[in-house]
Amino acid sequence: MAAPAYPAWVRRWVSGQWRNKKRPPALRPSRPLALADKVANRREQLSEATCITEMSVMMACWKQNDFNDAPCAKEIRTFYDCVAKAEAFLGSKPNQNHLQSAVASVCAVGALGYYNGSLAVTEAGAECLNWTEFPDYVQQYPDRGLGDHNYCRNPDGGTTPWCFYRLVSGAIGWANCDCNQGAVRLAEDRGVELYFNGLWGTICADHWTDWDASVVCRQLGLSEIGTAGKKSHPGPWPVPLHLQSANCHGDEEALLLCAYQEAVSGACNQGSAVVTCVPPEGVGAPLRIVGGKESFEGRVEVYHDGKWGTICDDQWDDRDAEVVCRQLGLSGTPKALSWAHYGQGSGPILLDEVQCSGNELSLDQCKKSDWGQQNCDHIEDAGVSCDPFTEGTVRLAGGRSPSEGRVEVYYNGDWGTVCDDGWTDLGAQVICRQLGFSGPAAVASEGDYGAGQGFILLDDVACVGTELSLLDCPHSNWGQHDCSHAEDLGVRCSPESNTVMDGSLGPPVRLVDGESTKEGRVEVLLHGQWGSVCDDDWTDRDAAVVCRQLGFSGTAKARAMAYFGEGHGPIHLDNVECNGMEHTLGQCATPDTRIHSCWHTEDVGVICDYVEEKVPDIRRTGPESGVCGMRLLHRRKKRIIGGNKSLRGSWPWQASLRLKGFRRDTRLLCGATLISSCWVVTAAHCFKRFGVDVRRYLLRVGDYHTGVKDEFERELPVERIVLHRNYWAGSNDNDIALVRMRGREGHCLSFNHHVLPVCLPDRRERQDINRQACIISGWGDTGKSYSRTLLQGVVPLLPREDCEARYGRKFTNRMICAGNLSEDKRVDSCQGDSGGPLMCQRPNGRWIILGITSWGYGCGRKDSPGVYTKVSKYVPWIKKVTKLK
User: Fold this and answer.
1) Which GO terms describe its cellular component (predicted)?
2) Which of 597, 834, 854, 864 is the catalytic position?
3) What is the pTM assigned to this prediction?
4) Known catalytic residue at 685
């Protein structure tokens, strides 16, 4: 049988010669690397795949977690090289269904970094084949431990060793070997178990700390905060003792990345280590969705008291589904499903009578039964769909080819048909254009593609033929019609023109969510939907083509990592490669538009007609000078949870306290506020966990997008940390600290339009500030993740009696509270904003720091305003420490 003819880009990719480069496309280890239409790329799913030709396309069916050989109802294509293991499948994201047993990317390796053990079976128990049966592979990777043996190896540099093995059918397959070195799991009693040198075992509790426990919780994906405990063993230990101590700093991603010490026989006196993982306040217990055919749908399961369990569907509705989707970070149309729509669970039923308003950040914040209190069976397990389709998406069904069929449109979570009253070939051309077909189009005869089922969603559609999509045409209200399914609209498009990236024009392009019409997230109209572009290999050359297509002729700058926010529809393009001379994005070299390996956190953006700002050196240094509290950019206002992205340079005194990592990277720990050239003010509780060792921290100023190096961004080492003398970790009172950057006396950094100090308040600040429109800012918790772009939110200051009524004696005269008490206004500072500013504007236009984000009950909760350290109470102390006048 002749091998099928595949597109040239597929042949180049599988052979490793991507556009004449001797490598596959640039891929990142932090996300899945598979080429697939859906997230169905886990390596174990490929282990049973049968390859017929040397370079074949597997037509595999998605059936829950397996590829199988059954006839395909829904086709998923995956490209796989049967001779040389396809590099596309060397990585994957952590499977959120396995939070209790996360595996660190650590394996036993030899001196050159390659596995050299004697393991010779796959994870599924199949015996490995001798490497001499694959001489081409041995020659391709010399000196990588391949030879006359069948031991697992990782000659291609992957983190996990693997081997070839023979399937039952006689075909050759490959699979990972059992290299779980470093995996952790929690026993029923929360005891920590570590997979080490081929065995599950425990850790001695003699030197077990909260920092060690926090690393375990982070590795399991349960939370960032862990509490250490211990359990005694009066008799013989049931499992081996692996580690004498972990010696973690608390910021490691996995236990074996700590400076651990292996166990010494008989030297453990305090029993074995126990962990309690505490979800951050406002985040809620971990959730997962399982049993769905797509990654955005499934049975809802919640983690509590060391177990995964289901939720009963009593009172379960779309508002509950919205909260679940938000907590999981899934956009789209939330839809609740009942009666075990995605199959029955097998564990405990943990929740019942869930009643969310739809605005909550997590299921924990919703009204519900007590844990375990329910009267349900698993036939009532609740499910959700967080469908990513956008309203107005169209598809063709019932045709003999992809270019013809019955027209179906997506609205309010459902697919439905369109009545054919008044349709002409010009209208059919709009449908075909939306689907990416150009050329002639025709309305089909009634009944050609069968009668649809379900809703008839549109009638009396009057397209003139020039519209870009169906929703641009006048039509009746959704769901209003006088038709039957015998009148369902069908169309025939020109199949030969279904290459939307060819031609002189290419697909329409637009910019979204920028500060002006010349910048924003890049979105492309393909297959009837606006979608984003992934930032793999995205450069200024690509940005230049986008700007040229939009009519701009100046300098173009590329922006990556969702610089202008995350999109909500499909991701249409990846690995775009323009030479910079093209007139439209459609003329650039681009792989198959259905295939990518990205998330919306990687959406690209552009800035057109970019003009590089000159950096003025404003050398005045104190809040007493003429520059404090001035916003030299963006004097206009632009209306954190319920908050909005700020404009670049809006809050030039915004700083961040960064915790150093072990790979020279840093991560956001707390917000901070610049008050002079050398000093910032922040919250004392920010140092509760990691102490006041200045070597652990850096201060970042001039930042806007945490993942992109901004033009005015600087990171400076810390020279001194001063906690208020009356602060102690068991209280929220006196929650203020000063941090000095390293530099010569009085001048650590230069001011510019993006880096300026805020004004300190007077000790008795006048009451003529606008108390109803104070601002909080930061990169804090938005309900699904920490924002990459600086956020802002408007909050009113509240009367003292309202704060005392809510918080009682915990609220002192050294605090103020601000926020909205009503349920429909949910602006509040959250975990990542700790230490950040609460700012108010004086009548003269200058901004003062009135408060420092300190504490509260949850994030954006009704009747739970944020509490802030009252800065005016500490002005004498601040001036004494900093020597400011």
Assistant:
1) extracellular region; membrane
2) 834
3) 0.43
4) yes
